[in-house]
Input
Amino acid sequence: MRFLSILALAAGASAGLLSRATGGTKCLKQGDVDVLVEAYKSMPTQWERSKADILANDGFFDYSDSINTVAGLPTGFPIFPNKAAFVARQNEAVRSSPLPAHVPELTVPSSLTTPLTIVEVGPWNCDQITVIWSTTFTKIPGGTPLPVRGITVLEATYMKEEHLFNIQNIKVEFNSLNFFKNTGVCSRTPPS
Output
C-alpha cells in the first residue's frame, strides 16, 4: 500500500512538473502529429473547404520566403498573414494556380497535382512538428520532372473547446530553383 502511495505521489509530481514545463498547456502526442501532418500533406493537392477547420482561427499565418521568391515578391514576411487569406487562396487554387492571387504575371501550373511525399516527420515537441517532404512534377511538355524537396515546421495550438490541435502557423521552404524549372519559368542550367 505504501508503495502505491509513493507511486501516486511521484506520478502527481511528474504531471505537475510537465504542466509547469509546458506552461500548463496540452502537448502533442503521436496521434495528434499524424492528424496534423496528414492534413498538411493534403492541402496542396486535395484542398476542400472543410480542411480549413484544422487551421487556428486566431493568429494563423503561412510564412515562406520560397513562395515569395517564386511569386516574385519581397522576402521576409508571411505569404498569407491570416487564415482568411490562406483559405481564400486555397479555395481559388482549386480553380487556378497554387500561388498568391496578387501574382497574375507569373505563369504557373493550374494546380499542383502531384501529391507531396512525406520523407520524414520529426523531430517534434510539445507544439511544433518538423516535416521533410518532396514532390516531382513537370508542367513542360516533354520536360524532365525534377524533384522539389522542402521542409515545413507546423506550429500547433490546442483548442480546449474542440479537444484537438489546430495548425497555428505553417513555415515552409523548398528548392525554388527546381520549382521554377518544372514550371518552365527557368529553363537554363547555370554554367559549370
Q: What stands out?
A: Residues 30 and 128 are 12 Å apart (CA to CA). The two ends are 75 Å apart (CA to CA). The longest strand covers residues 146-159.
